[in-house]
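Quick illustration, no need to memorize.
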Amino acid sequence: MTIEPHAGHQPAVPAQHGQETVPAQQTPQAPAVAGNPLIEWAQAARQAHGIAESLARTSFVPRSLQGRPGDITAAILTGQELGMPPMAALRSLDIIQGTPALRAHAMRALVQRAGHQIQVVESTPVLCVMRGRRKGDEEWQTVEWSIERAQQLGLTGKDQWKRQPQSMLVARATSEICRLIAADVLFAVPYATEELVDQPVEQAPPRVTVEEIRARGQQQAAPAPEPAEAQDGQPEEFTDWASGGEPEGWEDVPERQASPWDDVADTETPAA
């Protein structure tokens, strides 16, 4: 039975009498992709997109993500950076004005899972006081959100603040205390959904068509109208006067007053 040499390797050259065996030159291998974070992330993105295409056709994802596999892929990858399973990420992340945001309860869960402590000291429809401290710290950090503070920011006129002011105060205090004590846990998504929803919607600039741009360019490039031709070769400023009118400002010239020297000028000088 003949044994074929392994692919990529050449058989060793047999040694001659009194000579050493010379190994054959090996074919260079392609560099391994293992350990390259960017390549691993790209592979994970392709796999996440395949999952997203299947989930986008189901009603098990939020309505805002149904039929949008691209957004589902981004949510899964963002959740992976935060250490969240894919389905938990879809239920906890929202896209508000193009910015990913965590819901307040999910933000608090991530911080507590990391070993940090968060406590609600007081919660009423007009005030929420929360405190938190990092794992291993003894000192507590405290934040307060009152209805007066929300009024100063113009938040109380919104529907959610009218219907459930206590929950909105808790959400605001939660996001603030989480960023204060555990910014390293939320570095990928530092804002809560409830915060971004309260922000005014950015107005996109009006769209301009190619035809409108061309029309504006033609108007700017059009030559200025030539002045009207003067009558009988006279300058334009004298045209109205020559036709019987008076030049502008002529009526403002004061009339000449009579002088006693007028009579002297009319008297003939006697001959010497």
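The first strand starts at residue 93 and ends at 96.
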